[in-house]
Design brief:
Blueprint lengths: L1 H16 L3 H9 L3 H4 L2 H13 L3 H14 L4 H13 L3 H14 L4 H13 L3 H14 L4 H13 L3 H14 L4 H13 L3 H14 L4 H13 L3 H14 L5 H8 L7 H19 L14 E7 L6 H12 L5 E7 L6 H7 L4 E4 L5 H11 L3 E4 L9 H4 L6 E4 L14 E5 L14 E5 L21 H5 L3 E4 L8 H13 L4 E5 L6 H13 L7 E4 L5 H6 L6 E3 L8 H8 L4 E4 L8 H8 L6 E2 L2 H12 L2 H16 L6 H19 L1
Length: 652
Amino acid sequence: MANKVEAIFREAKKQINAGLYQQALENLKSLPKKIRKSPEVLHMSGFAFVQIADYPSAISALDSALQIEPKNNEIKRHLASVYLLAKAYKKAKVLFEALVKKFPQDEELLLNLSDVAIGLKDYSKAMDLTKKLLAINSKHALAYCNQGIAYSELDDEENSLNSFRQSIEIDENNVSVLISFTQALIKFNRFVDAFELISKATKNDPRNVECLVIQSKLFRRLADNEAALENHEKIIEIEPDIDWQNYLFTQNYSTSMSAKQIYENHATWGQMLARQYGKVLNQRQLSLDNKIKIAYVSADFKLHSVLFFIEPIIEQHKRDKFEVYCYSNLKREDKLTTRLKSKADVWRDVSKLEADQIVDLIVKDEIDILIDLSGYTAGNLMNVFVQKPAPIQVTYLGYPNTTGLKCIDYRISESNAEPKNADSLYSEKLVRLPNSFLCYRPPSDLEIKRCDSLPARKNGCITFGSFNHVNKINRNLISTWSEILKSVDGSHLILKNSVFSDSKVQQYYLQLFKKCGIGTSRIQFLTRINSIEKHLESYNSIDIALDTFPYNGTTTTCEALWMGVPVLSLIGDRHASRVGNSLLSQVGLVDWVADSEADYIEKANFFASDISNLEKLRNGLRGKLLSSSLCDAKLVTSDLESAYMDMIKEQN
């Protein structure tokens, strides 16, 4: 018997050394119970579990081993390391502090403890520990890296970047350092430098998924969504079950993929998600005789466009017929969150709950209609919706495409925002509201100086502008805008986005325009302005706003119209490229919707040539907006409520 046990033990060791961790665990499991519970076997099992990323099992094994041998520092070190990997920072801290007290010169322990401090957001402590470590070893690249992370979190750009530079001077090819440095550069809007760095990391480790994800994000910031899509496809090839949501989201910006292709990819992901999570089918019957419980679900109940459009609706819901819940997956609240809380009947913060717990809460609250406001944007709860916790589920507002989930019953839109074949592009049943599907509330409580005279009168030339998110800018769009600038003599273009705070990013975009024949003097950049008043006043510099395509603007278009600036939009083959048509139709500017790129250029030239009409339009545009259904919260909410009641009738 002893020989057999020894043979199993030796074989398990060989398998671990060969990287065959699952087989080693199976061998160790076959040992007699008494031997399986020995510290040596538990320790070995814990190590194997870590290698297959089964941290709960690793913690259980190592903790049991430590209970038997509480003074075994090797087991203690390994258990602390697994707690760190599992992000159980408080438990890791207790063990690492005890070890550092015993081994104060141990570089690995000091580094691990600084990792824990960063995880606990104790950045001052992290810096103290890295300084101790650097006093022992002044060439410790990871110590400088952690110092850079800590400074970055404290918004100290200069010290953060200097620390990272020292780190890569010591170890220029360390991929983890390159990733952390890149993330700091992104935080400080240094996207060109960040792209160069992450490209180096990707070259060093071409199958590193984290590198590819970050590089994709930077491709989007630098007007190359097609390259971002290629990266996402590489990621899915390496790890088929991850990054699908980023891949789907990026497709909305694509100039190469058709609406049908995008739908099919969403449907594929929806099927995968259903296989992974789907298990609950709520078939509770609803009645219009009872008050209807509706719940809006979002991670954007803050200073965000979703809140701007949903807040007036939440206010206007008829409380004699509807009880309004908000399920918030928001990580950090702000003043607008506090304001919205007071307008919901019931507010649920679900940001710290697991998907199953949120499902249970929704079922317990007996929600009748559950409304997703996120789609595949950050913080979404598709893993909750796929479990069907409410009898009726709807997607609305926050995402310009289908979810691909059959368990989401309806998608809310309106006819002007949908192509002719729209129904075939959604897994949900499309509900077209009779008026506007968006409800814009102008910031009438702010003191905003609006310039009624046309900027062209003062400048002697037409100024075009686009304040849309930089992700919506692509190479084809830059080419089209360049043709407009060529066709309108002396015209200029203003682009506004936070990325333009970096002069290198400005130079990058100027080079893209230069390749299209546009000189640098005709492009002006504005960066993010924290004051909403000052941001809106920036529209006073623009004569005509140019909408992006194929992904149109929404909030930016509404803001431009509010400030008296007409918007030129190009209609396309999907919802994302028809929102401009929806908004402009509401205010009677259907002539400002182009049906081709050539028409877009021609219309820009035509409208720019009539200064008097532009000035007249500028003075009357705010009134048109205010009198439209787009700003009629009661009407939009009433249409929405009618749609909700029709859904219940259909279910019955």
